[in-house]
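WARN retry 2 of 3 for item q-0093 after timeout on previous attempt; input resubmitted unchanged.
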Amino acid sequence: MAVWLVLLCSLPGCDYARMKEQEALQTYKTALPEMPAGTIPVGGGIETLKKSDPKSLRNPLPFSEETTNKGRESYAVYCIMCHGPKADGNGTVGQSFHPLPTALRDPKVQAMTDGEIFYNLSFGIKRQPPMAYTVSAQDLWAIVHYIRFLGSSSGS
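OK item q-0093 returned
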């Protein structure tokens, strides 16, 4: 009986209607602004690239000293820790891998088309991480030119 008396006395102190009007509960009713048409792409992009034939991809950047230097800079940021300063697979991080990362001067790498190298850089191969999600396509194409430069006699 005492429990019922306590319960009846405490009911007037609860104001459930006011609790529903708390700011914490009302934030989800905020209307979002309209999104302009064409904001989210529905075609093309990385998924189209992933489905393409790597041999059909063509490097849009001209092979020049400027693009090779840009590739060297990008290589120093994204690749050198595994492939090493001599591109021989003996980078600081790469030394802990077995097998070692690919030597980029290797004739097998140099025999690949630009598109194949770009595709492997973009989506990864074996231990090579996919870089298309973090590195711009322009930087990846410049790295392809730098890899070509490494394979030439002047790249030594």
